[in-house]
Structures are given as structure tokens and as C-alpha cells.
Amino acid sequence: MRALPVRIRLSLWYFAMFATAACMLSAASWWMLRRSVDSTEYHDLQERAEDVQLLLANRKPNASIEDLRQQFASIYSIKDDGKWLQVMDQDGSWIYRSKRMIAENPALDAPDRLPIQGVLAEFHQGTRYVRVLAYPIAAGGRRYSVQTGIALNKSMVLLTTFGTDLLLLTPAMIVLAAIGGHWMSRKALQPVAILAMEARRINDRNLDIRLPVPAAEDELADLSRTLNQMLERIDKAFASVRAFTGNASHELRTPIALLRTEIELTLYRNRNEEEYRAILRSLHEETIRMTDLVENLLSLARADGGAEVMTLVPIHGKDLFDQVEQTWRKILQSAMLDFCVEVQDGLVFAGDFGALTRLLSILLENAAKYTPPGGSVRLSATSAADTVVLTVGDTGIGISPTDIPRIFDRFFRAPQPGVSTSRGSGLGLALAKWIAERHDAQLTVESSPGRGSCFSFCLKKVAPASPEAALVIGSRVR
Ligand code: ADP
User: Which ligand 1 atom is nearest residue 425's CA?
Assistant: First the structure.
């Protein structure tokens, strides 16, 4: 059953339920008709016995049994031929017996052995099917057994005809219901078939197509809308992957073309050792930038694919800042920038050491790039309630308010007069934002053009040297 298509399963369920209901209804109607016929007949027989009781109650007080016999004979024998009646007194003497009763001679108990509601019995006589009721009555201080009968032929014909009609009608109704059920399930599932057909048309080249939403506000409309929302997300993801690939190839093409041109120009004629050294230094710088770009691209691709795993552990602010300072002090000094590092003692927060070093390095690299010589760069960690705020500030060129919302977008580089855009790839802040988010933090910036920028984010504070804390936060985040 499970392997069958939904349409067939629905039809079969509908058919099974309707067939069961139709059979039960037919059986119940036949049974109810039979019960009401039986009840009518019983009351008819009972009434006849009560007529006899009335007759016996009205007899003369000193009438002998012979008188009674004559009285009954004079009343009942006129139409005796069609009657089923016999009356017996409590001593077992017959008062009246119709010819049919004499011919059949059914058993009749004494009145004190009959139950109050009487006893029913049935028998065949010739072509007749007869039901008799042996009924106890009392009249004039004596008790009698009265047995009256009725031919069941008419009722049987009625019941048989009704039963035959039901036997013909019920299967016909079931067949009609099966056809109707099949048609209904087809009609009900037609919108699903249309949805499936439309969905089959969608591929990676036409992801902008949307599925039709049925006018009725039903489950199918809901399904269409949900699928359309999913398509919207897939479309956006595809567009961003395409843009990412396009931008990445564009970013790589420029330095590769530069390298090629420089190499070709160098090979064009013979040069002295000094010239070769200068060219190789320039090529070396270019390859370093390309390596950085490829590393950033790889990190973002790994982050998108969920392959970049972070393990959050308690980190001492001092250790992290020492590590970062060791790398950046010389670079910033050679860029003629004042570098100031401030970290409160005993600050411990949850984070991934390697990832946080990378985040701070991205921010410090930007500070170095966008701060003119003579300016200053400040790296600080301060305690605030249950968090630690990490900040990288500079006194550089700043960012215009219109560019601020876009600086975290991949490959975005704000056009800044006097600063060579070829120095950056526009990927640093996107990566920094992603690292902050993996730490449940939001990387924010405050900046005003000409006065500098300040990037900051908050990390969850943890109790120093607590092994439990290490266990709780030592989880891997993708
Ligand atoms: P890039 O490699 O170009 O620096 P980022 O993603 O790191 O790429 O930065 C995006 C843009 O944000 C930069 O091109 C620059 O215009 C702006 N920006 C980032 N940091 C600073 C800063 N400290 N001062 C001024 N502008 C900044």
C-alpha cells in the first residue's frame, strides 16, 4: 500500500470506507425493517389472544364448557377456514380448535406453564409459513391457553424484496462511489501535479522562476509559498556564489596579469644584478598579496561550507594581546604609527585563540593601511558587565557614512582619494565579521572621515582558571 501513488491510496481508502459504510447501512436497514415487521406481527397475535380473553370474560356466569364451545363455534367457525386459533382451559379441555390448527396440531402448554409474554413458534404448512403465539389469559376466575397464528408469507416477500433491492443497490452505489472517489482524488491532487511539473522546469539557469500559488488559501497555497521562499533563498545563495566566483577571478586576474607583464618586461632585455633584485622584490610583494587574497578566499569558502571549525575556550586577554602585539608592533612602527596596547589585568573571555588573532590582525592591518604616517593605532580590552569589549581604533582617514553599511560586504572597497585600492581585496572585514559572529558577537564600527575609525566587539566573560567553564564553553562552533 505504501508503495502505491497517493492518488491510488486515497481512492482505495475512500472506496474501503464507503463500501464498509454502505454494507453496514444496508445490513442495519434490513435488520430494522425485520424487527419492526416482527414487532407488528407479535402485537397482532397478542391482540387476537386478547379478543378471545374479552369473549371469555363476557360469558354467562354459570355457562358450562359445552356452552362455551358452542359460543366459540358460532363466532369463529363462520370464517374458520382462514383462521389459526385454538383455546384450551386450565384443565386441558379444548374450547375451540380451527381446522388449520387441528391439521397442524402444534403443541400448546397449560396456561400456568406459559410465560406472561407468551411463546412464539414457527412452522411450514404447505406453501404457508406460519408464526403462532401461545398466550396465557385469565377470565371469570379461570385460566386459559390461547394459541393464535398468522401467515408470514407477505412479510417474507416484503423482506426478501427489500433484501434483493439492497443487494443490487449497494454494489451499484459502491461502484459509483469508487468512481467518484477516484475522480475526487485526481481533482484534489491536480494542483500538486501542476506544482511538480513547474518545479521540474526549474534549474540552475532559471532560478528566478516561481511556482504558481493557488488562489484558495489552503495547504497547497502554503506549500507553494514555502517552496517559493526556499527558491528565493537558493537563488540568492547561487547569486552570491556566482558573484563571489566572479569577483575572486577578477581579483586574481589583475595581480597575475601584473606579474606576467613585469616578468615579460624583465625578460625583454638583459639587466644587471641590482635591477633583477629590485624586480624580484616587487614580484615577491605581489605574490605575498596574492597569497593573502587566496587565503582569505579559502577561509570564506570554508566558512560558507561549514568546514571552518572553532573551539571556544577561556582565553586570557593578556596572552592574546601579547601575541598580536609581537607581530604588529614592528609593522606599525615601520609605518610610522604610534601603537598603544591596553588590556585590564585578569580579563578572561571565551573564544578561539587563532580566530581572534586573525580578526585583530585584519583590523590592525586596515588601521595601518588607512592611517597616514604620524597617526596612532590603539588596541584595547576593557571589562563591561559580563562581557569584555575588544577595540581597535585609529586616527586614520575614516569611513564616509554612506560606505559604513557596505564595508562588511565581500569585495567592497570604499573609494578613498590618496589610498591605493590595489592594496586591499575587500575581503578582510567580511572575514572579521564572520569570526565575530561565530563568537556570538557583532563587529561594529564608529567612524568619521578625517578623524579615524574604531572597530569593536564584545566577548563573553568567563571566570579565570575554572575547569568547568572550559568544559561548558569548550564547544566546537561551525
Ligand atoms: P580591504 O582589503 O580593502 O581593506 P576590508 O574588507 O578589510 O578590505 O575593508 C573594506 C573597506 O573598508 C576598505 O576598502 C576601506 O575602504 C574600509 N576600511 C576598513 N577599515 C578601515 C579603517 N580602519 N579606516 C578607514 N577605512 C577602512
Answer: 2
Query: Is the pLDDT confidence value at 475 over 60?
Result: no
pLDDT at 463: 77
In Å, how far from its chain's centre is CA 240?
A: 30
pLDDT for 365: 94
C-alpha dist (Å) from residue 121 to 118, 131, 197:
10, 6, 71
Of 410, 407, 418, which Cα lies nearest the Cα of 366?
407
Determine contact, residues 388/382, Cβ cutoff 8 Å: yes
Nearest atom in ligand 1 to the alpha carbon of residue 415 is: 16
Q: What band does 90 get if pLDDT is binned at 50, 70 and 90?
A: very high
Most confident of 71-80, 182-191, 447-456: 447-456
Task: Round to whole Å and give the CA distance between 137 and 112.
Answer: 10
CA distance 435 to 302: 12
Whole-angstrom Cα distance, residue 342 to residue 344? 7
* 341 vs 325: CA distance, rounded Å: 8
Per residue in 270-282, pLDDT (tens digit) is 889 999 999 999 8
Q: Does 477 score more than 60 pLDDT?
A: no
- Report whether 106 contacts 147 (CB < 8 A): yes
Distance (Å) from CA 323 to ligand 1 centroid:
23
**Residue to probe by mutation, ligand 1, list 370, 395, 410, most atoms within 8 Å of CB:** 370
At 169, list the grid cell.
Answer: 443497490
Backbone angles phi, psi at 77, to 5 degrees: -75, -15
For residue range 16-36, list pLDDT tens digits in order.
Answer: 999 999 999 999 999 999 999
Residue nearest to atom 21 of ligand 1 (CA): 366
- Count of residues in the chain: 478
Residue that has been written with the C-alpha cell 573571555 in this structure: 349
Query: Residue 425, class by beta-carbon neighbours within 10 Å (0-12 exposed, 13-18 middle, 19+ buried)?
Result: buried
The SS3 assignment for 127 reads: coil
Q: Cα separations (Å) of 140 from 144, 145, 401?
A: 10, 14, 121
Per-residue pLDDT reduced to its tens digit, 121-146: 999 888 888 999 999 999 888 899 99
Q: Is the pLDDT of residue 209 over 70?
A: yes
Q: Whose CA is nearest to atom 4 of ligand 1?
A: 424
